[in-house]
Specification:
This protein is an alpha/beta fold. Helix content is 48%, strand content 13%. It has a five-stranded parallel β-sheet with strand order 2-1-3-4-5. It has a five-stranded parallel β-sheet with strand order 7-10-13-6-14.
């Protein structure tokens, strides 16, 4: 078996001739040796460097027969580094030594071939264990880095953070409510990241952007020939999310005709692909989001009450940006760093007037609108600081006076913002006022980043 010359061994015994004999034997095998004459010296050596194996006597000068001093040392070594392989040298109390954490034992006087075989084995096992521990630590660090950062210093956001911490690790279905662009998707991502399903997929379906004709196929999939354009089998979002989390955004837009099928899969985990009679099963946690009042939708006959009960085991309300204005500077600087890095711009901050514009703006499009305003400013800024003109925030009479200078898309974006502001971010009411269907307005909101 190949020996590693880099392996470092700690030999501990209160008898100098024993330490020297072991040092010469192990050095001849290519190991780096350090010796210790007492438990105090052993612990001091471990504070200085890492060892691959510790070869430790159980009996020391203060207690030459019971081995208690050595057993106590074993417990202390385990507390310092539980991955360190410890081989005890004694015929006494070997069972108790193994219970205290020793990996193996060698009886005195030892047989050189047996001792060397044990040391080689423990070096390999110890390195394998430490490599696994390092890998798990790196994976944990990467998972922690991947956790979504929720900037939430405002008092109104603290209940949201508390619910994420409490509910995230569970499998409970969660309904996230709040205005369009307020950060419901970020909350869904945080819930998934803190769950036992974090290593499994998080699949998103935007119900507001799907027509009724494709909705069932999108959720449940279809088989070849199920309809005219079904040229091959297709996996639906529920199957994609199996073992993980399905985020149903804008769930209020699920057609009434499909709500019974959605209710069934939430209750039983069972469904059929479009055009197939074969029942499939999935294990999916569902996080839903909406900016509509689902209780009003139930009263109006547009949403099933039993489906509402199924999706809102826990309800999390995300406040609009106007209710958490103290978070605007931190959010703005966060987006600034992101976009400055993305576009390789040297933009470093906001001047006083720009920050005042940010904190006073009504933000009908909430955090998403702030993100896009900062992105625009990063692109437009000529110097290291962003000014108010770079943000392009048009409100009130100033915006009306500039209508003649706007493009058709800019006018449409302005009118949508105005309608959202008038109805406190309620997409259904804004859509009615603009003469649009809710789905049509959602598509425009996505296009303009509102």
């Amino acid at each position: 078996m190949t020996k590693s010359p880099a392996a470092r061994l700690l030999v501990a015994d209160d008898q100098a001739d024993v330490r020297e004999a072991l040092r010469l034997l192990l050095k001849a095998e290519g190991y780096a040796i350090e010796t210790a004459a007492s438990p105090t010296e052993v612990l001091a050596a471990l504070q200085k460097r890492e060892f691959d194996v510790a070869l430790v006597d159980l009996n020391y000068a203060r207690d030459t027969t019971s081995g208690q001093e050595g057993l106590d040392l074993l417990s202390r070594l385990q507390a310092v580094d539980w991955t360190l392989p410890i081989v005890v040298m004694t015929a006494w109390a070997s069972v108790e030594a193994m219970r205290r954490g020793a990996r193996d034992f060698v009886a005195k006087p030892w047989e050189n071939p047996r001792l060397l075989a044990i040391v080689r084995t423990q070096v390999e096992l110890g390195r394998a264990l430490r490599a696994r521990e390092r890998l798990e630590a790196e994976n944990t660090a990467l998972r922690d880095q991947a956790l979504p950062r929720i900037i939430a210093g405002a008092a109104s956001m603290q209940p949201v953070l508390q619910l994420i911490e409490r509910v995230g690790p569970s499998d409970a279905n969660v309904l996230v409510t709040g205005e369009n662009g307020s950060g419901k998707g970020t909350v869904a991502l945080a819930l998934h990241a803190r769950s036992a399903r974090a290593t499994k997929p998080l699949i998103t379906v935007n119900a507001g952007g799907l027509s009724e004709g494709v909705f069932e196929s999108e959720l449940f999939g279809h088989v070849r020939g199920a309809f005219t354009d079904a040229k091959a089998d297709r996996v639906g979002r529920f199957e994609m999310a199996d073992g993980g989390t399905l985020f149903l955004d804008e769930i209020a837009n699920v057609p009434m005709s499909l709500q019974p099928k959605l209710l069934r899969v939430l209750e039983t985990g069972e469904f059929e692909r479009v055009g197939s009679s074969m029942t499939r099963r999935v294990d999916v946690r569902v996080v839903s989001a909406t900016n509509a009042d689902l209780h009003q939708e139930v009263s109006a006959g547009r949403f099933r009450q039993d489906l509402l009960f199924r999706i809102n085991t826990i309800e999390v309300r995300v406040p609009p940006l106007r209710e958490r204005r103290e978070d605007i500077p931190a959010l703005a600087h966060h987006f600034l760093r992101q976009h400055a890095g993305r576009y390789r711009k040297a933009t470093r901050g906001f001047n006083e007037a720009a920050m005042r514009s940010l904190t006073e703006h009504p933000w009908p499009g909430n955090v998403r609108e702030l993100d896009h305003a900062v992105e625009r400013a990063v692109l437009m800024a000529a110097g290291p600081e962003i000014g108010p003109a770079d943000l392009g925030l048009r409100v009130g009479s100033e915006a009306t006076a500039r209508l003649d200078d706007m493009s058709l898309e800019e006018v449409e974006c302005f009118l949508i913002r105005k309608a959202l502001g008038r109805f406190d971010g309620n997409v259904s009411r804004a859509a009615d006022a603009l003469g649009l269907s809710r789905s049509a307005l959602y598509r425009r909101l996505q296009r303009y980043g509102l």
